[in-house]
Design a protein that fits this description.
Length: about 375
Amino acid sequence: MPFIDLQRQYQKYKDEIHAQMETVLNASAYIMGPKMKELEETLSGYVGVKHALAVSSGTDALLISLMALGIKAGDEVITSAFSFFASCEVISFLNAKPVFVDIDPVTYNINPDQIESKITKNTKAIMPVSLYGQCADFEKINSIGRKYDLPVIEDACQSFGATCAKGRSCGLSSLGCTSFFPSKPLGCYGDGGMIFTNDSSLAEKMYMIRAHGQKERYRHDCIGVNGRLDALQAAVLLGKWPHFEEEVRLRNQLGQELKEELKKIMGVIVPETASGNSHVYAQFSIQVESRDAFAASLQKMGVPTAVHYPVPLPFQPVYESMGFKKGDFPVSEDVAGRIISLPFHPFLTQEERHFIVSCVQQALSLV
Ligand SMILES: *Cc1c(COP(=O)(O)O)cnc(C)c1O
């Protein structure tokens, strides 16, 4: 059993994906071009924002957003202590300081009640992560943003397609950034990402930053990057797009069903969805004791697992000089020690689901 079954999805949508790719190949327009534009228009419509910029990865989406906001050395950006490394890497890359906030124990997203106490005169932005496919609490985070006049960037790399009371992920705050890495809810066949915003002046800056700071060819108004999405990846995404809403529906339904079954097993903490939220389960992650032995038993039974993520961001070796100590981020530390992701994708059959559940039960009785 694969952890995420990309092959099954490809076999299902093959003809549409090939047809889209063929258009690009026949036109020999590989960098940006009409397919990228079509993708941007399609997805900005879906999210319900004015501007969508296709970029080379989720990491570059975050980086370009911070660059457009003018984040520089000495600035502070508030983010979650528990995420994939890219969430804080982009802040450090600009020589700004990531200011970590612990997470909520139920949603695993940044604890909004701990944000205000971390704001200083150097704070320039708040960058919450919508982890595992569930939106962070943007009601509260945006109101803090408004109070201190700080932009809010959603790291929505795992949550494209998710919704909350405020609307769709990526359209909830000043800027929304997602990733099209193959295993994400909407994945291409390589690297890719997108930035969403209603702010036209930010969008204009980001168009420039995406292409070497150029406004027109060979006229460079600012320092940018090579952050473009290539047209073949846009074609892959357009080929898959007609099926996305159905996949989101299946993710929701299958996740719910898997959760109800796992809930009955002693010693399993299942992922909970905050009221008003819908979950796309980019990762279906549970908490168990003795994780390593549990994972080894599952592996023997043919059920692959992964740990997202074993080390909270403040405790990464590269941040050693920040001097954090055990107990500074109690919830993140606790979760990082017990979280484990099970195989999950929209094409999981009922038999596979039952197999996973019975293996989890067996593995727990062995540890
Ligand atoms: C995947 C991911 C990223 C980075 O996206 P890439 O497309 O791989 O660069 C950033 N943040 C989070 C939370 C992610 O899961």
